[in-house]
Amino acid sequence: MIADVIPFRPQPQPISLRLREVLNDESGEITKWFSANSGARAKFRIRVQHLQKIGRGEWNITQFRHLGDGLAEIKWKHGNKQFRAIGFDHQGWFVVVIGCIHKMNVYDPQSCLKTAKRIMGEVKDGTRKTREFKP
Amino acid sequence: MELERLENLSLEKQLVDQLQDEEYRRAFVEGHTTDTIAFQLRAMRKAEGWEQKDVAERLGNRNLQPMISRYENPDYGKYSISTLLELAAVFDVALAVRFAPFSELVEWDLSSNPAKDCPASFAKDVRLTEMVEENKELQQAAGAVIINNVLGISAATQHQDFARRATPHTPVFELVAQAQRASGGM
To answer: How far is the C-alpha of A45 from the C-alpha of A43, rounded, in Å?
Structure first.
């Protein structure tokens, strides 16, 4: 109800951020990762909602960063931990391939970038399936 | 339309299910507070065409620019209510810091109105003007109902006649007096 009556300032049309996740034996990798980090999932949901409303060119580096080789990460903090959802743009979607923690410039798990690259290749050549992910 | 409604119901159910988890609930509240403030501040500043230093200047101290930068970082999360009130004054918007039931936050989360991302300043708040207009219409309608009751005249006839003559500011007692004069001095 409140949403119907609050006036707003006109904003530039945003580029949508639609998410997909990779499947492993019919279950989603990111859904599984988030099941052990429910607080991080809540924060991720809200971060994505806000990013969806502004153009990608305006995303701040504290929220989104290109990693090279086609990979990029959505960044957010929960508790004292820095979380990362690493993925890539594919056919109008941002496919999240792996979730991890970032501490003192080191990813946990350490091999996550290597894994992300491998899975990205599998998605692109069609050997790995994906599905829509609504955080 | 029906499909969209069903999809919204499904999203609502999914969110309510997720909120059963206490850690999720706490983070949901925290995220909505910190992210919303940071993104709203940025959106309002951009809508005005201001730089962070312009906001700092309007707060009365150009050196506060780094603080504006921190406040626009959704991971910062250490806002002071007094500073938020000052910022609300700078943008001439309201600030609603209060406790609320989760159902309210769920509705806020699922609503897609862009108003929640970049609220209008007082001067540009068209809804306020609409509220005044609605109030005027309500006053006219109330006047007509009282007249009908006093004179026992058909509601449709009376409303058309007196509503046409009454200005939006005509008090109810004046409408009644007009009606009495018209009907032969009751």
So the answer is: 5
Q: Which amino acid is at B181?
A: R
Question: Using CA atoms, how far apart are residues B47 and B118, in angstroms rounded to an integer?
Answer: 8
pLDDT tens digits along B148-176: 676 666 555 555 555 555 555 555 556 55
Interacting residues of B134 by C-beta distance below 8 A, sequence separation 6+:
none
Distance CA B175, CA B71 (A): 54
Nearest Cα to B113, choosing from A45, A3, A69, A55?
Answer: A3
A38 vs B24, B119, B127: nearest CB: B24
Which residue in A has a C-alpha nearest to residue B125's C-alpha? A7
Residue to test with chain B: of A2, A19, A37, A46, most B Cβ within 10 A: A46
Taking contacts as CB-CB distances below 8 angstroms, the residues of chain B near A62 are 73-75
Q: Compare all CA atoms of chain A with the CA of B114 and give the residue at the minimum distance.
A: A8
Task: Name which of A38, A40, A44 is nearest A17 in CA terms.
Answer: A44
At residue A26, the 3 state secondary structure works out as coil
Q: Which residue of B has its CA nearest to A43?
A: B31
Residue A75 three-state SS = strand
**pLDDT tens for each residue of B2-30:** 777 777 778 899 999 999 999 999 999 99
Q: With CB atoms and an 8 Å threshold, state whether B107 touches A1.
A: yes
Strand, helix or coil for residue A103? strand
Which residues lie below 8 Å from residue A63, measured CB to CB, with a gap of 6+? A47, A51, A74, A75, A76, B74
